[in-house]
Amino acid sequence: MTKTDLPALTVADLQTLLRRREASPREVIEALHERIATVDPQIGAYLSLDLEAALKDAETVDVDLPLGGVPIAIKDAISVKNQPCTCGSKILRNYRAIYDATTIRKLKAAGAIPFGKTNMDEFAMGSSTENSSARVTRNPWDLERIPGGSSGGSAAAVAADEAICALGSDTGGSIRQPASVSGVVGLKPTYGRVSRFGLVAFASSLDQIGPLTKTVRDAALLLGVMAGVDPQDPTCLDEPVPDYADGLDCDLRGVRLGLPKEYMIEGVDAQVKAAVESALSHFQSLGADVVEVSLPHSEYAIDVYYVIATAEASTNLARFDGVRYGYRAEKTNSLLEHYERTREEGFGAEVKRRIILGTYMLSSGYYDAYYLRAQKVRTLIRKDFAAAFEKVDALISPTSPTAAFKIGERAEDPLQMYLADIFTNAANLAGICGISLPCGFAKSAEGSKLPIGLQILGKALDEARIFQVAHAYEQSTDWHIQRPSAIEPVRNAQPSKASEFQP
Question: Annotated catalytic, 174?
Answer without folding.
Answer: yes
